[in-house]
């Protein structure tokens, strides 16, 4: 049986890391050391202020990613990036939302998908949305999700949006090497933008790994 500290750590792996000091009352409420705009919003409007914070951060960060995608004409903006942005601004101190977990999570997702499509002979094959869902594609997607989940568990780098990224790649939507590189670059841009915004707006977000 786990001791109390181990139980707290186990819970905090999937929640806001402020659980460890037993101060969590909501996603953004228990952030220790908040300041500036974030603290002002919380003090003035409570959870509605937190909603404004998540809205503001997500809006600006995704806009930055979108501008980069437009300027470089590369798929730097893809569906699972929205879930990552939400984590960055809803649970900014959580392990699942740390830069470490986000970057490792999506990178592993891409690699797992490439391994899966290769294993099922789908390199250069039309996507599931062009050729339809065939048994090989089902196997590739299932294997990609399984590999991603297993690898991130071993690496202790859980990041749920990575599950969507690996499906995007293994279903054939993004399969060109440059597109796969763009996915990782897109994650890096969003991560850097979100870190900067959190620090600017009043959340002492971790530079790499979530504090323990």
Question: What is the secondary structure topology, with strand pairs?
Answer:
Layout: H1 4-12, H2 36-45, H3 47-72, H4 79-90, H5 99-119, H6 128-131, H7 135-155, H8 161-170, H9 177-201
Helix pairs in contact: 2-3, 3-4, 3-9, 4-8, 4-9, 5-7, 5-8, 5-9, 7-8
Q: What is the structure about, briefly put?
A:
This protein is mainly α and 212 residues long.
Overall 3D form: elongated
What oligomeric arrangement do these chains adopt? single chain
The stretches of 5 or more residues where confidence is low (pLDDT under 50) are 16-26
Largest beta sheet, briefly? none
User: How large is the share of residues in beta strands?
Assistant: under 5%
Count all strands and give the number: 0
Query: Structural class per helix/strand content?
Result: mainly alpha
**N-end to C-end Cα span:** 21 Å
Radius of gyration: 18 Å
Average pLDDT number: 89
SSE pattern? HHHHHHHHH
Number of domains: 1
Helix content: 55-70%
How many H/I helical runs?
Answer: 9
